[in-house]
Amino acid sequence: MECLAQDRSAWHSRTSKAQEVFETNRRDQLANAREAHKAAKSSLSATAAFQCPYCPRVCASRIGLSSYTRAHERRLSAR
């Protein structure tokens, strides 16, 4: 490695190439992770649907359904 450091242009070329490869791999990994996250999120929203027991409304989360159901029950009891 010392002899490579003595030849500055070869050292610079090799370190630049290594950095370029590292950055390319890092960007690819981030892009793959982002796509996996998006795919998991979209498949989760398609499968995790919570339907109101009083009407055909579908909520995306359980807490949303709970809040909606509570409001729906208040509206029904006010009639």
From TrEMBL:
Stretches the record annotates as Disordered: 1-23
Protein name, per record: C2H2-type domain-containing protein
